[in-house]
Amino acid sequence: MSGRRSLAPVVVVAVLGGLLGGMGGAVLADRLDTTSVPEEQVPAAESASVDDEAAAPAPPVEADGTISGLSQAVLPSVALISIGEDGELGLGSGFVVREDGYLLTNHHVIKVAGEDDPIVVELPGEEPMDAELVGSEQAYDIAVLRVDRTDLAPLAFADSDTLRVGQTVVAVGAPLGLDSTVTSGIVSAKDRPVVAGETQESTSYISAIQTDAAINPGNSGGPLLDLSGQVVGVNSAIAQVPQAAGFGGPSGSIGLGFAVPAEQADRTATQLIETGTSEHPVMGVLVDLTYTGDGARVLEEAAGEDPPVVPGGPADLAGIRPGDVILAVDGMTIRDSQQLIVVLRSYAVGDTVELEIRDGDDGSRTVEVTLAGSGG
What we know:
The chain is mainly beta. It is 10% helix and 33% strand. It has 5 helices and 23 strands. Strands 1, 2, 3, 11, 12, 13, 14, 15 and 16 form a 9-stranded mixed beta sheet that branches. It has a 7-stranded antiparallel beta sheet with strand order 8-7-4-5-6-10-9.
């Protein structure tokens, strides 16, 4: 078992234009936009009907392997997203995922919109379009919008498993409202655990792609692409040197940006389009966020009316008990409770994971848990 790793001296920030937030180290991210999503704005399943032809995977755009060629190919599919009158509530980015009017962006971009606040999509060279919210998933910081069009040019998602550290990637979006902005860099790291949000209810847990491509406020929801023009991630947050360190606090990119992996974004967006809702995998335990030892400890006592281990849930069926400490998932060492949540949410509902457990008597055992959906 490795020791606890120190958190890096950074703060991670959600990259919504006009509204800064953050996260850091193994991953703590705050956001300044604390407004919760009004119920009226969540899922419009009735407006998200799908036909088989439209649901087919998007074909790759025609990129020639250069950044200039890539830019010409993908820019028509990347939008400036404005929330409120003239974007007074916030600005972000988004991109077309289906020709019949669906665009993907970040949850934190649209969560500031109230019931009557307009959400406007602007594609390069086109008139602004009013958009409706199809659905939003705070857990993965993904949202889907729809505009009344059937002739849009979608971007295709890449296979996340083929992404390599050191690979060239390109970020496209509207930092500070400057639409059609292209920056480039490399994949600096994969599977970086990132936690963004100020409250338990607004927190996203992402096993993120880290990149040094310049990402700034307003890039939220824009694509991170490989040179073939396929989406490898959805830009979501940046790290910044904290004010406490005397470096001035929030400003812009310092070369540490984070994106939701394509596989996660695609899976969540598809669920939102098809049903208006999505779910994330759970194992049915409450973890102790105050625990400071190695691993993640299951609560020893109930939290209000919530038991530490859900009776009949995946963990209960696997023999996990209150006070057990989860030390590893599929061989990956778990440092703390937040990392455990990030790692589990990188799996899909129905996946089976192997957990290394230490009980209260310092005994250890290995169990298998089949993850259930958060929807019950």
